[in-house]
């Protein structure tokens, strides 16, 4: 058990109580950049170099597969490399797929799985996400498993049920507090400029935290990221919300100045 005096930074009594009760994640925030299918080799190299060596947050960048090699060389030691997906197989006749061991060999430590663009454009089910996550865990990767409701589901008031069902089916039994990160990304907020309200974010992150607490040991150490139109100008208040342990950033991760401002806000 840690005592108040063990924490390097001054903590408020309420924070100390939350830490004591294991309700607050005391790790650095994780800021992950999802570059999606953007840029060319020169852009990828320039962007990776421009990010320098941030130390106030854990930072991970996820370029397209074919840019992983150049980014692995151009980025600083302090930035981790991630991929945007992986195969549910390790090797074999699966044309076009890339396996988790291949990603590990390229220097990846993270892989994003179950992003809503994969779920909708490639009809990926939560069951497949769990299969991929098993392979990723076996290869030693940390999985960033994405969940989130559509606009219709939120309007119908079933968002909590949708997200907890996705969690239940997408998290395999190989997951633990060291290899699992959850990203809550309401589908209607991705790339649209619409951000969920702080109350929406707080409420859903509390639902996810409760779910994790029931399913996994030491679950308070699992980071829950928010994603969906996180920008330089809204990052600070989103990252300060309870149970928000970082951000998964799409569009704004493609501009070094914006991404660095988000990292600074962590
Ligand atoms: P966005 O994307 O920041 O552009 O909304 C987030 C994501 O899709 O991970």
Your description of this structure?
38% of the residues lie in helices and 15% in strands. With 266 residues, it is α/β, with parallel strands linked by helices. It has one domain (29-265): Aldolase class I (TIM Barrel, Alpha-Beta Barrel). It has an eight-stranded parallel beta barrel, surrounded by five helices. Strand 3 (79-83), helix 4 (100-105) and strand 4 (108-113) form a beta-alpha-beta unit. Helix 8 runs parallel beside helix 9 (198-215). The model is unreliable at 1-23 (pLDDT under 50). Bound molecules: 2-phosphoglycolic acid.
Tell me what the CATH architecture is.
Answer: Alpha-Beta Barrel
Please work out how many helical segments DSSP would assign: 11
List the domain count as a whole number.
Answer: 1
- How far apart, in Å, are the first and last alpha carbons? 25 Å
Largest sheet: 8 strands, parallel, barrel
Strand content: 15-25%
Largest beta sheet: strand ordering:
1-2-3-4-5-6-7-8
Rg, rounded, reads: 18 Å
Question: Can you identify the CATH class?
Answer: Alpha Beta
Identify low-pLDDT runs. Answer: 1-23
Order of helices and strands: HEHEHEHEHHEHHEHEHEH
Helix content: 25-40%
What CATH calls the topology is TIM Barrel
Looking at the structure, what is the overall shape? globular
